[in-house]
Write a structure and sequence with these properties.
Blueprint: H1 3-19, H2 24-38, H3 44-49, H4 63-75, H5 79-86, H6 91-95, H7 103-113, H8 118-126, H9 138-152, E1 159-160, H10 161-175, E2 183-187, H11 188-192, E3 196-197, E4 200-205, H12 209-217, E5 224-228, E6 232-236, E7 242-248, H13 253-261, H14 264-276, E8 279-282, E9 285-288, E10 303-305, H15 309-314, H16 331-336, E11 351-352, H17 366-375, E12 380-383, H18 398-415, E13 424-432, H19 443-446, E14 451-455, H20 464-476, E15 482-483, H21 501-511, E16 514-518, H22 528-536, E17 541-544, H23 556-565, H24 579-585
Parallel strand pairs: 4-7, 11-12, 12-13, 13-14, 14-15, 15-16, 16-17
Antiparallel strand pairs: 1-3, 2-4, 5-6, 6-7, 8-9, 9-10
Length: about 600
């Protein structure tokens, strides 16, 4: 099983235990383990295989959890999970997909109202029965009714890109072990960097299709073979994801990779361009059409291109278009005009400007976060623990914040004792936008900061004009550097606030305030559309990890992918600059 699989199992166990009223510390242990494992880059199987390490070396993993991880790695099953699932109605998991409904609230709905489906819950809300259940009320009932459509949307059952990527990396490593494979690449929505992925596509260059398909079927994660043809097979893999494999010869590999990467809309436009040039494109290559032929007629036998994607695009008069841009927008027109952006890369990032430590809700200390940032080659970071409003995270009041900033000053001095420091640590804070307006720390404190992130964590169901006003007020505060996760969405879990994002972007352009692309795989906020709109308005963006552990620093690549889908270049991203350049760019 992949890390993502095991994290999902532990999260599921936590939900089941909480539903049954299990010990709160036991529930927390499973949830913390799920979060830790989900953020790991190294596989648990690799840790286990290392003779000099044990699974209990991992933070929060004791002997009991280590034994369960070993059982999952060996068998793919956890007896405890099966035991718990037998005691909980299946509808519980369907109901918990509604944003705002956790295990405890779902149990009340099932026990008090006999809810047995999303449709039944919707009807109970419309009948006014939900507001009568203790702990709910009219506002909660209205919010549930509004969020049921979100839960029913099949789009929200897809894997996060980071989850799909973990499966894809394991799959690619396995397929590369097959002697019959000359080249193998992932395609589809995973390659385009979509924030969620429905299934996985593989394209293989080989002269022995049966051997390649046999090798995929032997993969330890293959749970079922769904179909098999001469050059195509489909299997069921981890997390029940469908994996489709196509085998082509060397001369068609680029054509197949382009075709199966998509998107459908991009390919339709590309075929139309080919037709205008008396050519046709399919998964085997680019071919000449006979004079006056229709696109459905047989093309000439000789392929004009097919070996590489570069050849495919060149055959219709275009430069290669990065996969992240292939969504059927204006990318072909921009390519024709020579206006494709030089997309930002992970190597362009010099600093990370949103992270947390054990001072609030982080898992690692300030020195540990700094060492991890140095190991990743960063030149500067901002420590941005929560302000005092976020009481559940033990947010910092004035006294504790100033004490932390004193610690950062001493750390920076120590780093610079023997010459240029390997990294500079900025004194930061993530302040909260209060429901009634204003921020949770006063300006006379914020003016002492190097970097201020302003975020909205409470009052998320306020009316559109109120939430918009709160964010714009923060945008206009002279001491706020950036707006964190501006729309507040959690992919597959919670929709964005009801927010006039265009007004926020306009205010940011007017004031010079940055907007964040939060790289947390559950957030990716701003999304690609809003990030592109911010660029058009002249707003600079910041890609930050919002890391709550040293492992969390590794999700920067997810934010980069989102920025690439928005067509952003290094110059559009504030933290691609050196620290002196960043300070010049800041409005104060």
């Amino acid at each position: 099983m992949t890390n993502a699989d095991i994290a999902a199992v532990f999260d599921h166990v936590g939900d089941l235990l909480e539903y049954q009223g299990g010990n709160v510390f036991r529930v927390r242990a499973y949830r913390n383990a799920a979060r830790m494992i989900g953020g790991m880059v190294e596989s648990l199987a690799s840790v286990r295989a290392d003779s000099e390490r044990t699974l209990t070396d991992l933070e929060g993993i004791g002997a009991d959890l280590a034994g369960k991880i070993e059982a999952l790695l060996d068998t793919g099953k956890l007896p405890l999970l099966a035991e718990l699932e037998q005691k909980v109605p299946a509808v519980v998991f369907e109901l918990m997909r509604v944003p705002g409904l956790g295990p405890k609230k779902v149990k009340l709905l099932v026990d008090e109202l006999g809810i047995d489906s999303l449709d039944a819950l919707e009807q109970a809300c419309r009948d006014g029965r939900v507001e009568g259940v203790k702990g709910f009320g009219a506002k909660t009932q209205a919010a549930i009714l509004e969020n049921i459509a979100f839960a029913k949307n099949p789009e929200h059952a897809r894997l996060l890109w980071s989850e799909a990527d973990a499966i894809m990396q394991s799959l690619l490593a396995w397929m590369q072990e097959c002697p019959a494979v000359r080249q193998v690449e992932g395609a589809g929505s995973w390659r385009r960097g979509r924030e969620t992925v429905g299934d996985l596509d593989l394209v293989v260059d080989s002269g022995d299709a049966p051997a390649v398909m046999d090798h995929l079927h032997r993969w330890k994660e293959t749970s079922a073979v769904l179909l098999r043809g001469d050059t195509k097979t489909s299997i069921r893999g981890p997390r029940d994801v469908q994996i489709d494999l196509r085998v082509v010869d060397h001369g068609s590999f680029g054509a197949a990779l382009q075709y199966f990467t998509g998107s459908k809309d991009h390919n339709v436009k590309l075929r139309g361009r080919a037709r205008d040039r008396q050519r046709t494109i399919n998964e085997y290559g680019v071919f000449e059409l006979r004079p006056d032929a229709q696109e459905t007629d047989a093309p000439a036998a000789t392929s004009l291109a097919g070996r590489t994607e570069v050849d495919i695009y060149a055959a219709v008069g275009l430069p290669w278009i990065p996969p992240e841009l292939r969504e059927g927008g204006d990318e072909i027109l921009r390519a024709e005009r020579g206006e494709l952006p030089q997309l930002v890369t992970l190597a362009d990032i010099r600093g990370d400007l949103h992270m947390h430590t054990t001072a609030t809700d982080g898992e690692d200390t300030l020195p540990e976060m700094v060492r991890a940032a140095i190991a990743r080659g960063l030149s500067y970071i901002a420590i941005t623990d929560h302000g005092q409003r976020v009481t559940m995270a033990h947010g910092l009041d004035r006294k504790r914040l100033l004490a932390q900033w004193g610690e950062i000053d001493r750390l920076n001095a120590a780093l610079a004792e023997e010459g240029p420091p390997p990294i500079v640590v900025l004194k930061g804070i993530e302040v909260d936008m209060l429901e009634k307006g204003g921020l949770d720390l006063p300006d006379d404190v914020l003016e002492q900061a190097d970097w201020v992130v302003a975020s909205l964590h409470y009052g998320q169901n306020q009316p559109r004009d109120r939430i918009t006003a709160r964010i714009i007020e923060a945008v206009e505060n002279p001491f706020v550097s950036v707006i964190g996760h501006p729309t507040g969405r959690l992919i597959n879990r919670r929709p964005a606030y009801d927010l006039d994002i265009e007004a926020v972007i306009e205010a940011a352009a007017r004031t010079g305030t940055f907007l964040e692309i939060n790289a947390n795989p559950w957030r990716l906020d701003l999304d690609d559309r809003h990030a592109a709109a911010a660029k058009r308005a002249g707003v600079k963006l910041v890609i930050s990890t919002d890391a709550h552990s040293t492992r969390g620093l590794d999700v920067m690549r997810c934010g980069i992918l989102q920025a690439r889908r928005a067509g952003l270049e290094a110059s559009d991203i504030a933290n691609t600059r050196t620290l002196p350049q960043l300070k010049k760019l800041m409005r104060r």
